[in-house]
Amino acid sequence: MSTVPFTKMHGLGNDYIYFDCVQNPDLIADPVATAIKLSDRHFSIGGDGIVLILPHGEADFQMRMFNADGSEAEMCGNAIRCVGKYVYDKGYHRDSTVRFMTGNGILTLALTVADGVCSAARVDMGPPILAGSQIPVALEANPVLGQPISVAGEDLTFSAVSMGNPHAVFFTPAITDHQILTLGPKLEVHPLFPRKINVEFVTVNSRSEVTMRVWERGSGETMACGTGACAVGVACMLNGLTDRDVTVHLRGGDLRIEWLESDNHVYMTGPAAYAFTGQVEV
User: Helix 226-238 vs helix 77-89: angle between axes, to the nearest 10 degrees?
Assistant: First the structure.
């Protein structure tokens, strides 16, 4: 085993352990085992997973993220804002626009910078994926809106969107612990979702504001989910419940989600912050 430095960061409380692999791409030899070991909140550092910040030939950098259960995720909207802040504040990249290779392709961030420090970012998340076969959902619908599903003896309806990773959105007059903590894990592994699913329960407050809680695939309930907020915004807009610019209230804070008609891209704006740094054996 070797001792390596890490940085704990979060976007609205969605917290990961970040490893700077820019100079040494092989720093973390076994990211799956490392994510499982270090994410434990009782016996280790604790977090929703780990993130590797890597060099890349086609983009400025690469981001790889592994959930608390060791599964690799395609994307994380909160994590990508944090890696944008990290590479800027570290001096690796001093332009306010930065491109990251992710499991959902190359994504571009516009950084909010003042006095040489990045505090937030607007992320071009690309176009939403709406076809059931591509999300994927075991349905031949495009888009997947108002579809029935039964779980734990309850009949629900959902809309599905992929933002590079799959999401099932459930609208409800009031969000409960039962929905998130009991139905969430069962919905995550429901047969309708061949690659599992991230689950969001949503209350629509107005044409410009919604509230959500999320059960994340591979991590459980988290304080915030950037791709989930994007999927929720798109689902709300497709169902005619909100306008195309909406504030999403999450347990850890707010994200602004825009779905532009001009390019069909979804844009997410929110903060990024440090928690602490340290060294750990991996």
Answer: 130
